Amino acid sequence: MFRPIALSFRSIAKLLALACLLAFALPVNADAASRIKDIVDVEGIRDNLLVGYGLVVGLNGTGDTLRNAPFTQQSLTAMLERLGVNTRGSQLKTANVAAVMVTANLPPFAPQGSRIDVTVSALGDATNLQGGVLLVTPLMGADGQVYAVAQGSVATGGFSAKGEAASIVRGVPTNSRIANGAIVEREIEFKLANLNSLRLSLRNPDLTTAERVAGAINTFLGQPAANANNPTTVQLTVPPSYSGNVVSLLTDIEQLRVEPDLPARVVIDEASGVIVMGEDVRVSRVAIAQGNLTISVNETPQVSQPAPFSNTGQTTVVPRTSVNVEESKGRKLAFVDGSISLKELVDGLNALGVTPRDMITILQAIKSAGALQAEISVM
């Protein structure tokens, strides 16, 4: 016969606390899921590209040749005129100046007066930007407005040296960077906190992933606030509890975890022989045979000379070519069972003893036969 157990409010609170601790102590498979923060971008929170044209001075004779780069001479003349120096009609021969393109990324919500990094690249025939100083260069956006101004000493990651009969170049000395080399002069206004709805863009578009993201957000909020419109976009309506505080909403939902679902795909880089296969790649039942055919051509030219004391002949080179064809033996037809996993597919191809180059051809042939249940993407 069971007796009822009376528990006080304090005992119930202790039991609930213990249950919470046990729940957090249980192992969680965190590798199978990704944070929403890592798979989506919030529309409106993005970088903006800036570009500008300027001059780098102070080079040690490694700048542009003014005869071959007339835009450098025109820019130098215009700059000197703004400083009160008239050089119109003069023949400038300095090699210490280089025309450059300056590029930068303006981060979202960058306040006025903050600094950003810039990249400086030679535009003319300058050979080295080492030791140069970038003069004041306005950086403009796509709308033609100036958003930052760059200036400072450039730092190159490469170098070049040459002598009378030899030269060496390490890296790219005509490309350099200036850390914190630009000052933001204009902010890009974007009132995030007052938005009533948000659009989350998936970095890898997929219908299943978009639906899982929307489901995770709705489960967390306890209401149908998120809706997957297409494989790329999830529309999120700001709940009344987060009205005027969208930053807190994004902070809460970006830590939620979902398991992305991607289509089966095989990526091939024929230039380097790299093959990357997704987890869901499957192969139907198929038989594969692979053999190596080697053709070698050897040139052994011979010299033909006339007989001694002959006045009619002359020394000539007679070509001698030998062509050998060799085909590897012992290669048998390999049977690949249907619906095998990625590991079994890789093990089966490795068992054939094929190289990555041959493996690319085999995968393309399997796809042509209709046995590869995946998309092949050639880079």
Summarize the structure.
The protein has helices at 9-25, 36-39, 70-82, 207-221, 246-253, 342-351, 356-368, and strands at 34-35, 40-42, 48-57, 98-106, 115-122, 133-140, 146-153, 155-156, 159-162, 167-170, 175-184, 197-202, 226-228, 233-237, 257-258, 265-269, 274-277, 282-283, 286-288, 293-299, 302-304, 316-318, 321-327, 334-336, 372-373, 375-378. The chain is of the alpha+beta class and 379 residues long. A six-stranded antiparallel beta barrel has the order 3-4-5-11-7-6. It has a four-stranded antiparallel sheet with strand order 2-12-14-13.
Description:
The protein has 379 residues and is an alpha+beta fold. 21% of the residues lie in helices and 34% in strands. The protein is built from 7 helices and 26 strands. It has helices spanning 9-25, 36-39, 70-82, 207-221, 246-253, 342-351, 356-368; strands at residues 34-35, 40-42, 48-57, 98-106, 115-122, 133-140, 146-153, 155-156, 159-162, 167-170, 175-184, 197-202, 226-228, 233-237, 257-258, 265-269, 274-277, 282-283, 286-288, 293-299, 302-304, 316-318, 321-327, 334-336, 372-373, 375-378. The protein has a 6-stranded antiparallel barrel with strand order 3-4-5-11-7-6. A 4-stranded antiparallel sheet has the order 2-12-14-13. The chain has a 3-stranded mixed sheet with strand order 17-16-26, with helices on one face. A hairpin with a 4-residue loop joins strand 9 (159-162) and strand 10. The longest helix is centred in the first third of the chain and has 17 residues, at 9-25. Mean pLDDT is 80; it is low at 1-7 and 12-30.
